[in-house]
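To the wet lab folks,

You asked to see what we're planning to order before we commit. Fair enough. Below is the target structure as tokens, and below that is the sequence we designed to fit it. If anything looks off to you, flag it before the synthesis order goes out.
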């Protein structure tokens, strides 16, 4: 039986805009049919992505997901199981074969980084502000995703979700995912959220309910910031240690949740700012669950961004924060260590592909910011936001030129895609595409 969908114009300055609705299986069916082309590409390339990201064989990775995550996921996450089965069937209707275990393995990648590497992948710059810090006194939030560019082709999806039970929401996500994974979402409940990982996390996960199932439950069923904190801690696996930034449009309150494994830090305010740059702020979590020393080390990415965000948020733009200033901040290229504007690994809009220094990654790695998002309370109440695909600054990245300059990355070039200069666009169900420059 063909799936129902409400038609949206899917391609908008690089973004893929889709809408799904109804029961878990119906939602999945619509997801699979609309994103079948991306799912086909994912199915083909996932073994190489896993090998590149995890440094283990695909067979080993699949065996570990089946052992570590699948049993509890099947037992305790029935709604998401139904949705994923629908995704598989929807893709099949369009000629793409992708099975449940492959989708589960894809959804589990963030959870499995620390299983293999002792510490999760460090990614993202973000902030959330309210009260006197913002121009209107209401919430402003911004975020960009830092990742390997081989993940970018699957991460350009904006998904509007209207479930038969729970709250509607919009999220940036990837094909086949049941949560955001880029961790940017706006919910009809009035809760908005984003996240940056905690760098240097050394605790090995003991799998309970995986992170992606917990944050999806928050988005669809969470009614308050208290419920978000409770759900994220419930059977926490320690599988994706993160600095979560949540806001409640109904009250103007924002909340910082630094979630380790055994340790947790919760801070909340109606007048202030929380931000993330991949190092934990709470000294207890830093001492007990990380080996991170980068907080004030300007030579590191986290330390440099920490100082820069402090300046931009608390000095230059304090009291002036809105979507336009947020877009400027999240696209910032000031290297605090070097004391000048330069694209590189230490900037809020990260560009390791042009970084000749050895940082936590090899010089010139195809890694950095692949997007930018900003929202204020007025937009968020309509589940709208400003988004830019390709990077927060709109730079050009051409695979042919990149490989010519750095032939050592030729083996992974086929997994990448070009980033064209893109404008900031107003993301909504109506897909307003008016160019708005910060």
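Sequence we intend to order:
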């Amino acid at each position: 039986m063909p799936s129902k969908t409400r038609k949206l114009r899917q391609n908008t300055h690089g973004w893929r805009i889709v809408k799904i609705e109804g029961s878990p299986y119906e939602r999945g069916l619509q997801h699979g049919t609309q994103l079948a082309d991306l799912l086909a590409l994912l199915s083909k390339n996932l073994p190489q992505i896993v090998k590149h990201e995890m440094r283990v064989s695909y067979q080993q990775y699949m065996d570990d997901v089946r052992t570590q995550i699948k049993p509890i996921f099947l037992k305790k996450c029935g709604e998401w199981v139904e949705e994923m089965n629908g995704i598989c069937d929807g893709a099949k209707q369009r000629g793409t074969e992708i099975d449940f275990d492959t989708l589960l393995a894809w959804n589990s990648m963030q959870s499995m980084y620390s299983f293999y590497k002792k510490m999760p992948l460090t990614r993202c710059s973000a902030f959330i502000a309210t009260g006197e810090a913002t121009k209107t006194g209401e919430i402003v939030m911004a975020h960009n995703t830092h990742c390997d560019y081989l993940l970018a082709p699957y991460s350009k999806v904006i998904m509007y979700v209207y479930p038969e039970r729970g709250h509607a929401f919009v999220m940036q996500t990837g094909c086949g995912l049941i949560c955001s994974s880029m961790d940017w979402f706006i919910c009809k409940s009035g809760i908005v959220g984003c996240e940056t990982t905690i760098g240097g996390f050394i605790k090995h996960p003991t799998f309970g309910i995986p992170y992606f199932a917990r944050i999806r439950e928050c988005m669809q069923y969470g009614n308050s910031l208290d419920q978000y904190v409770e759900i994220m801690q419930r059977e926490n696996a320690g599988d994706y240690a993160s600095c979560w930034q949540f806001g409640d449009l109904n009250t103007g309150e924002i909340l910082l949740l630094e979630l380790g494994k055994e340790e947790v830090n919760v801070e909340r305010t109606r007048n202030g700012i929380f931000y993330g740059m991949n190092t934990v702020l709470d000294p207890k979590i830093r001492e007990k669950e990380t080996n991170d020393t980068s907080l004030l080390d300007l030579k590191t990415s986290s330390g440099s961004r920490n100082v820069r965000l402090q300046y931009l948020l608390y000095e230059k733009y304090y009291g002036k924060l809105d979507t336009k200033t947020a877009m400027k901040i999240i696209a910032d290229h000031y290297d605090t260590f070097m004391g000048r504007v330069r694209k590189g690994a230490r900037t809020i809009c990260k560009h390791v592909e042009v970084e000749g220094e050895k940082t936590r990654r090899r010089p010139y790695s195809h890694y950095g910011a692949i997007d930018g998002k900003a929202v204020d309370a007025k937009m968020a109440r309509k589940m709208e936001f400003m988004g830019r695909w390709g990077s927060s600054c709109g730079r050009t990245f051409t695979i042919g030129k990149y490989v010519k300059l750095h032939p050592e990355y030729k083996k992974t070039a086929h997994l990448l895609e070009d980033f064209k200069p893109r404008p900031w666009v107003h993301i909504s169900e109506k897909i307003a595409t008016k160019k708005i420059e910060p």
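Structural context that might help your review: The chain has one domain: 11-427. The longest helix spans residues 36-54.

Thanks,
Computational group
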